[in-house]
Amino acid sequence: MIVRALGLIAGAALVLLPLAGVPYTTTLLLPAFGYAVALLGLNLLFGSTGLLSFGHALFIALGGYTAAALTGRFGVRSLELVLLAAALVAALVAVPIGLLCVRYVKIYFGMLTLAFGMLFYSFLYKFYALTGGDEGMRVLRPMLLGRPLEHLDTVAYLTGPFYYYALGVLVVAALVMRRLVGSPFGLSLRSIRENAAKAESLGIGVRRCRLAAFVVAAVFGAIGGVLLVVPTGLADPLLAYWTHSGNLVFMLLLGGFDHFLGPVLGALVFILLQDSVMSLTSYWRFVFGAILAVIVIFFPRGLMGLLDARRAAAS
Amino acid sequence: MSAVRWALALGWPTPLFLPVLLAAGLALAAVGPVIERLLRPIYDRDESFQLLLTFALVLMFEDVIRFVWGTAPHQLGNVYLAYGQVRVGALTVPTYNLIVIACSAGIAAGMGWFLARTRFGRIVRATAENREMAAAMGVDMTRVYARVFTLGVALGTVGGALVIPATAAVNEMGIELIVEAFAVVVIGGLGSMRGAFAGALVVGVVKAVAIATWPEVEMLAIYVIVIAVLVLRPAGLFARATA
Amino acid sequence: MRLTRRRFLKLTGVGAVAAALPLDVVPVLAQSGPVRLGILAARAGVLAPVGESGLRGVQFATDRINAAGGILGRRLELIVEEESSPKDTVERFRKLALSDKVDAVSGAISTGVGLALGPAAEEMKTIWLAWDATTQKGVEESMPKPKYSFRSTDNECEAVMASILTARHWKGKFKTVAGINPDYSYGRDNWAAFLAIMKKYGIEAQVVSELWPKLGATDFTSHVATLIQAKPDLIFSCFWAGDTPIFMKQAHAAGLTKSTKVVLTTGGGVHESLKKDFTPEGAILGYNCFYFENPKASALAKEFTRWHAEKFKEWPNYESDHGYFTVVAFKAAIERAAKAAGGKWPTQDAIIQALEGVEAESLSGPRRYREDHIMEAAFFQGVTTHRNRHDFVTIDPVESMSTKQIQKPSGVGLYDWINGWKV
User: Are strands A234-235 and A137-138 parallel, antiparallel or unpaired?
Assistant: First the structure.
């Protein structure tokens, strides 16, 4: 009940934020929306399936570079088309990688995804002519729902139409994910997480299910990646670096992986926290490392876990 | 892996000669038990959490290093050059490199002897093989873990101390090297001593060959090998078939 | 149902933002209180020492300005944020522009970050005075005619000057060359400029090896081995970070630098780490725009060097000078524009106009912004010597060239410009 009420209040605040006249805070939430979409996917892998990817930034970068290539090089400016293309590219890339990765679980899965992420990073960094190397590729401002919105300057574009567009994508992504988690497919995933051998004996195609989850996660990652690079205007190799993957897992754990909205909360809190800690001290990495360590050691269920615990105590 | 990080973090501002350097590396291993105590709650959890904790440590140490030693690269005087050079035909090899090779071979041999021949080594291997069984046989898990971890930290700091004279200690070393260390361990196989040695050789040689022939693929090649090893022989290139 | 509601929300949002537009977007400079200058300085990773150095120059300039009564009587206040990845730095830039409402932003070194900040500055309508990060791509492709971005000197100036010195000192004395440069646009542009200039000077040098280690690499054993195999007469490198001393040390230990000529275009950025133990005499070494022991240094430069040495126990490098200049140029532009406006605090547009062509005394002598928003400065390079009071190499004699000579003029491609030289 409390969680639901808090969720409603938070949702209303998100919808009303652009009207509050705080343009910086509004633009600050844009990456949070992008991350939230990516994390919803990552959590299907971790929370539902029990596979922790340390290379998920690969798909964020894939989405980012797809957006850069389409808007910058091929003149495709419609964001709907870009999102669609990013999803397709991610699915195409995720199938072969997934086929290799889902044969393993636990730390081997984590290491294999990490290696693929770094492989992609090396490719982006080294193949200069194709990817722009360290300088990356420009992402031009896309049209929303076919409208160029050229009369708006960038701040107005980002804090107005794009903000609601990104929020809309997040809401749709969350609804889709909710369906997916509640579907027989989602139940299969959870039974695999609990006991793969048992699930197999019940006739569930364990690897097929894991692969499907991997591909869905990749698609969500790429869509999140597109939302992430539009405000920056640049796709760069660091998007695929292992520390970025680490940050994703950090956000997921911060929010809480065993609650459906944990990823969204994690992304929002992470971004807001990073902003304020960075303004306070230049040693923000230390603070963040300490927070992560405390979460991992003492509160592995994250903020949602804390809320849940209080609810349990109250009832 | 976090041991490597520790080495780099703490092996730095130490004095000038190799023995002192090694002693300093060993002394710093004293932090091992403290860290180990912090890690204890997550032994029972998925290894992924341990990987994540490593990430947390990386974040923290980068700032600790900056706070203590600043951002400029640190060099260790002339330790590297003080030992002179050895000439083999047309080849000039810094003596220090040979000393490092000798040290690592010595440490590897020592570790092999320790694991194979000593009582504690046998306990460690038994624990790695089957923790519950070892515990049931009356092995004090807490102490084994604390000691092994400390040993790991000691090896890491000594390793860091050994390489620093040949290069310089820089801020982002941990972030860069941790991935390379990861590649070494994966290629060799988790938990395999011989594997780690072989993995390091593979990574070193592949890098050297790539740089000499096709520099573009230097980084790519290592990850391709990591993936190939994980996919084809997940227990590592040189793992025994028994496990 | 859902869609219509969302669309409705979207439309209300757009309307509200449009209504709020004048407040957010039209740059109104506050007329009282301190002048706020946002700073983007790298704090972590390979860029950190350079970011630190730039910040020191900014701090020195700010202290001096405030001690002398500020800018037209208003105090100068710094808001320091971190330069990191392009994405995060754009977000910090946005914070400075939208939340802190700074009057200008000074900083940024990395080329990737610079490429992202250029458009961001235009979009946020915020003056951005870069310390570095002026690549060919940044100048030619993405920002042909910027209004709000003011760039540093071109990345290639150092390579151009070092190449001219190479031709002058060593023409006819080498037949084979090898390049070892950091693997990103800066390294690639510098190496290409070097080869183009060699050709221009009629030096038919054969390239025997091209190596691209990652920026900030800490082990060059394999690179050194490859270079020894390739046996070049001359090695060209535009390393500027902690990788410079490591490479030189490992090269020296393997006997590589004994008979090979070495050109280090930018190693002066980490001059204190180039110890005599392993850095040979007779190499060409560049210090970018500031040489701490310039015999012709101004009183200002001497004061800064003393302040820096006392406060940080280090001899300063060029990035401090870039940082210093952005601040004094900003002040000079405000004063210039105010004068034109009859003493009133100028508008942002007037400040931008005044910045174009503004001249101010930097730590390395007079400097200016060209009309196309590129810095003009003097560069310092020379041949290394061990005869000094330090444990690291210095240069003697000190040669200086103006960017009028070593930087391509406005509107011309770099290689067209080089090919048009008369030599």
Answer: antiparallel
**How many CB atoms neighbour CB B95 within 10 A?**
15
- Residue A161 to residue C81, Cβ atoms within 8 A: no
| Nearest-CA distance B205 → chain A (Å) | 18
Chain C hits for B70, Cβ within 8 Å: 52
Nearest chain B residue to A118 by CA: give it: B223
Cross-strand partners of B74: B169
Burial of A175 (0-12, 13-18, 19+ CB in 10 A): exposed
Compare CB distances from A283 to B39, B63, B226 and report the shortest one's residue: B63
DSSP code at position B169 = B
Report helix angle C221-230 to C243-253, nearest 10.
50
How confident is the model over A267-315, as pLDDT tens digits? Answer: 999 999 998 898 888 888 899 989 988 888 888 888 887 777 666 665 5
**Higher pLDDT among residues A223 and C25, named by residue:** A223
Closest CA to C398 of C386, C381, C375, C416: C381
Compute CA A110 distance to the chain's CA centroid, rounded to the nearest angstrom: 17
pLDDT digits over A156-174, tens only? 888 889 999 999 999 999 9
CA distances from A12 to A9, A15, A20, A167 (A): 5, 5, 12, 12
Cα separation, B160 vs B152, in Å, equals 12
Q: Supply A111's token pair.
A: 């290491």
Q: In this complex, do C123 and A156 lie within 8 Å of one another by their Cβ atoms?
A: no
Residue C4 forms contact with A (CB below 8 Å): no
Quick one: average pLDDT of B139-146? Answer: 81
| Cis amide linkage into residue B215, ω under 30° from 0 | no
Are residues B81 and C48, on separate chains, in Cβ contact within 8 Å? Answer: no
What does the alpha-carbon distance between residue A90 and residue A217 come to, in Å, rounded to a whole number?
Answer: 9
Do C325 and C333 meet the contact criterion of CB atoms below 8 Å apart? Answer: no
Say how many CB pairs under 8 Å bridge A and B.
119
A44, A210 Cβ separation under 8 angstroms: no
* Cα–Cα distance measured from residue C53 to residue B132, given in angstroms and rounded to the nearest whole number: 56
Q: Is A99 on the interface with B (CB under 8 A)?
A: no
- Given the DSSP bridges, would you call strands A137-138 and C261-264 parallel, antiparallel or unpaired? unpaired
Which residue of B lies nearest to C250 if distances are taken between CA atoms?
Answer: B166
Tell me whether B98 touches chain C (CB under 8 Å).
no
- Chain C stretch 183-212, residues whose beta carbon is closer than 8 A to a beta carbon of chain A: 183-185, 188
- Could you list the beta-strand ranges (E) of A52-194: 137-138
Cα distances (angstroms) measured from residue C318 to each of B229, C63, C305, C377, C400? 47, 19, 11, 11, 14
Task: Judge whether A185 is closer than 8 Å to chain B, CB to CB.
Answer: no
Please report the domains of chain C, with CATH numbers, ordered by start residue. 35-153+299-376 (3.40.50.2300), 157-288+378-419 (3.40.50.2300)
- DSSP per residue over B27-48, as a string? HHTTHHHHHHHHHGGGTTS-HH
Task: For Cα atoms C182, A245, A28, give the angle at the middle one, nearest 5 degrees.
Answer: 95
Encoded amino acid at B143, one letter = R
| ipTM of the complex model | 0.85
| Average pLDDT over chain B, rounded to an integer | 75
CB contact under 8 A, C6 and A171: yes
Provide the whole-model pTM: 0.85
How close does chain C come to B111, measured CA to CA in Å? 26
Mutate to test the interface with B, among C191, C222, C226, C391 (most CBs of B within 10 A): C222
Q: Do A135 and C123 touch (CB under 8 A)?
A: no
Q: Where are the domains of chain B?
A: 2-170, 172-243
Contact A283 B67 (CB under 8 A): yes
- What residues does C385 pair with on adjacent strands? C394
Select from A242, A253, A289 the Cβ nearest to the Cβ of B59.
A289
CA-based nearest residue in chain A for residue C21: A156
